[in-house]
Amino acid sequence: MKTPRAHTRVLSACAIVLTLGLSAACATKGSNPVAELATAKASVSQAESAGAKQLAPVEFLAAQEKLEKAEAASRAKEYVYSKRMAESAAADAELAERKSRAAKAVQTAEELERANAALQKEAARKP
Length: 127
What we know:
- By secondary structure, this protein is mainly α.
- The chain is built from five helices and no strands.
């Protein structure tokens, strides 16, 4: 039969092992998020092509800044943070692209409305 002191030692040893295990798990840096970085770069590029610099500048700038942070974190081997920033950059870039495309669609619709109104006005003048 074990003494209370032996139980305390066993529990202390278990606690130390558990603490070390959790510390090691938290300290892992993950693997390099190459795919996430590539996706973020492509998303930022597509947003820029869609005119996001002018039509959705806040979202586009956020995407660029997060992509830069993701790349820096990757170089520093902080892969978990890099992955998170890359995913966030891709999301911001997609939002910027969609806002840009929506703004262009609104502009096109307004132009079509003006052209239609002009045609209707001209048609009303001719008997």
